[in-house]
Structure formats: structure tokens, C-alpha cells
Amino acid sequence: MKVAVLVIDMLNDFVTGALKCERATRIIPNIKRLVETAREKGVPVIYTNDTHLHAVDKEFQVWKQHAVSGTWGAQVVDELKPAEKDYVIHKRRYSAFFATDLDLLLRELNVDTLILTGLVTNVCVQHTAADAFFRGYKVIVLRDCVEAVNEETHTTALEYMKTFYGCTVTTLSDALTLLGQT
Ligand code: ZN
């Protein structure tokens, strides 16, 4: 098993900006602990960041403008800034695989298992889990490192990913144990 940690959309616009998720601050220290451990163990850390084109992006038919390329809102929150050896993938849709080279990167790293963290559980995390499942990756979702706008959408999405994509839904504590063994 070769693992990578994905940090999905921990951007200013989703934490305190245009599409603020009130519950997001809860997971910041947990993700910080996970990525620091991953770096120590040589486990790849991959940030997948919403990076929309101004005005034309189709997502803006559903959501107000957010994470526009080059703006503060599209930057990772200060507490979780990528380290020099981390990877950063820019995406324009919910899924981190859609029209990005994430799959190519994972193949180059020989990764077969993804640990998903970030925002939000029932949108970008869930769509990324779906695309990972379709491509044959094993997916681990940490319930205390992902969040949504409320508890119901959060837990419903976790249950959906477990049932339909075979995701392992577990906790930071279990992931730290797993990283200790890799
Ligand atoms: Zn977006």
C-alpha cells in the first residue's frame, strides 16, 4: 500500500471568505497534525485547490464567485500553507480528478490509497472520492478532517461514500497510526 494525503479546498474563501463554512475551523488543527506527520514519514501531501477562471467558470451558475485564480480567496489558509515538497493541483470543478493531472501525479508516485481531508464533505470531497473509486484507488476519509455546512450533510455524505464507493471512514487517530506503519 502506498498512501498520499489529499488536502481539498482548505482555501480562504471556504473558511472565512465568500463561501464560508462555519464548521471548517474545527478541522484545521487536525489536518495540520496529519500533514506534518505525513511529511515526516515521506508520505506525499497533495493540495487540490479550487482555482476558477474569472466570470466564465460554469460553477458560477450554481455558486457565487469564489476561489478566483490569483485572489486571496483562492489561497490556502495561513495555518495550512503547503510546504516546499508538497504538490499543488488546481481544479475548476468539484472533483480533484476532473480536467487535472492528479491521476498522472498519483501514478508517478505509485500511490494506490488516498486519505481525504478538507472541504466540503458532500461536495468536493465526495466527488473526489467518487472519481478515485472509479479509477481503482482505495479511499480513506477522515471524519474529523473533513467538514460540511451542517452535521446532517456531513454524516450523510460520509455514509454515502462508505456505502457506494467502499471508502473507509475513520479518524485522524487511525490515520496517524497508519502513517506510522508506512
Ligand atoms: Zn468552486
Characterise this structure.
This protein has helices at residues 12-15, 28-41, 102-108, 121-134, 151-165, 172-181, and strands at residues 3-8, 45-50, 87-91, 113-119, 138-147, 168-170. It is α/β, with parallel strands linked by helices. It has one domain (3-180): Isochorismatase-like (Rossmann fold), CATH 3.40.50.850. The longest helix has 15 residues, at 151-165. The chain is globular, with a radius of gyration of 15 Å. Zinc ion binds next to loops.
Q: Any chance you could write out the topology, listing elements then pairs?
A:
Blueprint: E1 3-8, H1 12-15, H2 28-41, E2 45-50, E3 87-91, H3 102-108, E4 113-119, H4 121-134, E5 138-147, H5 151-165, E6 168-170, H6 172-181
Parallel strand pairs: 1-2, 1-4, 2-3, 4-5, 5-6
This protein binds zinc ion.
Q: Which structural class fits the helix and strand makeup?
A: alpha/beta
CATH class: Alpha Beta
| Average pLDDT | 97
What is the fourth-level CATH superfamily?
A: Isochorismatase-like
Number of separate strands: 6
